Amino acid sequence: MSIPKEYFKAGAITKAVKNWIKGRVTTGTGYLEICEDVEKEIIARGGKPAFPCAIGVNDVTAHYAPQPGEERRVVEKDVVKVDFGTHVDGYIVDTSVTFTDNAEYETLLESTERALNAAIEVARHDPRVGEIGRAIGSEASKHGFKTISNLSGHTLDRYVVHAGKSIPNLYMPNLPTLKKNEVFAVEPFLTLGNAAGYVVDAPQQTIFSLAARRRLGNTELDEAVQMIWDLRRTLPFTPRWFLENYTPEKLQAVLRELVKSKVVRSYSTLVEASGKPVAQFEHTAALDDGGLIVLT
User: Fold this and answer.
1) Which of 36, 70, 101, 162 is catalytic?
2) What is the dihedral of CA 105, 63, 205, 87, to 10 degrees?
3) pLDDT at position 172, please?
4) Which of 6, 41, 78, 83 is catalytic?
């Protein structure tokens, strides 16, 4: 068994989009514009979004995908995280970058990126996920920062973003080891030393995925399930991708019923518990006979 070639294609697309986005997250740019443009670039380069492009501004840390009508724009001194991924025939890579023009938080961003690099270097020689987490936590503490304790990296599989193994952002004992030919994402989240250091759910739910492909005996709902399966299988999606098929009100009603029936899973937006800014950098990598390969 070897690493499927589709991972390398997805990685090349993602690297190109990551380079493309530099300089485009600036004061005045709309949240929705950023995410839609990232998704369009992925498609233009021959891939498909592995999940909705998410934007996390300041304390908003994960799982926020802007919808039509979103009027917010990046303002001066924001800390802006852009989290996106590409899939090619279901083979997924995942990445994220953070931007700011705020000199006060430059060290936070630099430390987060160093934590990512330190984690990758440890993974080259020691694939125990606890040791990868130790490297992230150690790098964070050097400049007085904290990691987000309840977010982690993860293994990836075909059509599965979180494939079973978690890679913590601090040391934890008795955790598994990454195996040859496993593909995984390492994603340090760092925040200020006086922050709570964990995330909590916010009310917004803008990302969903199909949890069970089963018939409900309701034509409208069953057609919606089939449509989601045809477009995404079990990969995450966001409501704005289906607005050609539904009015916004009807779409929300259908999603409510599918979530209630446990056919669709919803993901809450996650925010830092004490309202402090968070930075995030992420790579997808894989272990093969030649060692560790950074795909993104």
Assistant:
1) 162
2) 150
3) 87
4) 83
